[in-house]
Amino acid sequence: MRILLSNDDGIGAEGIRVLARELAAIGEVYVVAPDRQRSAAGHGITLHKPLFLEEHDFGPGIHAYGLSGTPADCVKFGVTELMKDVKPDLVVSGINAGSNLGNDVMYSGTVSAAIEGSIQGIPAIAVSQCGSEPFDYQGAAEFTKRLIGEVLQNGIEPDTILNVNYPPLLPREVQGVRITSIGKRRYENHYDKRTNPRGVSYYWLAGPLKKLEQEPDADIRAVREGFISVSPVHFDFTHRRMIDTLKTWSLH
Amino acid sequence: MRILLSNDDGIGAEGIRVLARELAAIGEVYVVAPDRQRSAAGHGITLHKPLFLEEHDFGPGIHAYGLSGTPADCVKFGVTELMKDVKPDLVVSGINAGSNLGNDVMYSGTVSAAIEGSIQGIPAIAVSQCGSEPFDYQGAAEFTKRLIGEVLQNGIEPDTILNVNYPPLLPREVQGVRITSIGKRRYENHYDKRTNPRGVSYYWLAGPLKKLEQEPDADIRAVREGFISVSPVHFDFTHRRMIDTLKTWSLH
């Protein structure tokens, strides 16, 4: 089995190394990850700049490369160039340092790397370790290995990926696994305005999470209650019901 | 009425200027657009760098700014910082130079700027002019004005934007308006490998569109047949049906 591994924290992140080593036990691992931090990259791809590739040492049985692009670039490049003769059986993105829950999947480079795998016709999983520094990735890495077994056996629906969030707990403290929906997550965003030593103003995006009521099966609630959350995330953009409404508008 | 306008081609693009002037006739226009070309930016936002803002002259009745961020950053900044005391009634993204059809909406900075408007709770439209250089934006700009009237009267469903693609035709050649679904679009991607004068290899993303059968109501087909395409695009990520399947997997 061949696994293509990517992330959005960059090739130097600990989470991808832990996962690469864990997965090397069950298959041949190819790592193509951004050459630097690309969190919140969304599903950007690089059209107007060329991409540079650099080999990295991840230990035996692992082919590892840093690419000067986004997470989606890395998976596209991995599938269509680096592994064009040895198509991967699976794309895995992560383990991300921090959660990718609720509407944040929209902005998530971790999720977008997995989605690019699915666009390329390959079953794909995104994995995130919730909590904050210092992260312990071992539990999430082991769960990912178990999930991969089920994915290979059962498959994933078209245009769909599995989004895994592991709670900030030791494996023995974890309450179990919950299959979840994508919860509601909104921020009270504002911008911190500052002035640099040369008198030029600049802005930092800031603002806390809003406290929102969650559905009983929401991913956010599952992690909060100590469960591993597994959400089927699809990208079916057409709002079928609204098509009928729009047909009644005066646009002609 | 206050309209926040953005795009992904950058503040210097012709499409956003034509649209800003057209919309200034029906409301107060605020432009916040990337300070440079940000096509295919996806829904990236900028967390690890500060944002710089620069005022531009778009003529009377238009407040215009270039921001050193992505399209989604521009709309987030426009709504939560620049217009925090005068909330916009509408977010419009475009007019993009080139189509945003089918699955390309996933990568589209134009669409993502509109989606950020919707996330901020404001009705939002993405507008693209299909075809190639030289673009004529006037027909699309006039149609957008008409569509805005309907949007303000009828509203848009939550977590949904309208994605407009104007065919590469003169207004009198246009066949009409079609309410459409998001079609299938895939590329036969490959990477062109080159070597720079210093002997370093680099790669360019390349590859033509695959020829795919389209649904009768697909956006791609509508534009091909000379219609203006209006698609309701939503971002409801949970694959409800697959939740039941996943519950039968051995993950516990």
Automatic annotation (TrEMBL), chains A, B:
UniProt remark on cofactor binding: Binds 1 divalent metal cation per subunit.
EC number(s) reported in the record: 3.1.3.5
Cofactor: a divalent metal cation; Mg(2+)
A Gene Ontology molecular function term of the record: 5'-nucleotidase activity
UniProt-listed InterPro entries: SurE, SurE-like_Pase/nucleotidase, SurE-like_sf
One Pfam family it belongs to: SurE
A Gene Ontology cellular-component term: cytoplasm
Positions of the Survival protein SurE-like phosphatase/nucleotidase domain: 3-188
Catalytic activity: a ribonucleoside 5'-phosphate + H2O = a ribonucleoside + phosphate
Sequence positions that bind a divalent metal cation: 8-9, 39, 96
Enzyme class: hydrolase
Compartment(s) of residence: Cytoplasm
Keyword Hydrolase attached: yes
Major location (coarse): cytoplasm
Keywords noted in UniProt: Cytoplasm, Hydrolase, Metal-binding, Nucleotide-binding
Family listed: Belongs to the SurE nucleotidase family.
Biological role stated in the UniProt entry: Nucleotidase that shows phosphatase activity on nucleoside 5'-monophosphates.
Protein name listed in UniProt: 5'-nucleotidase SurE
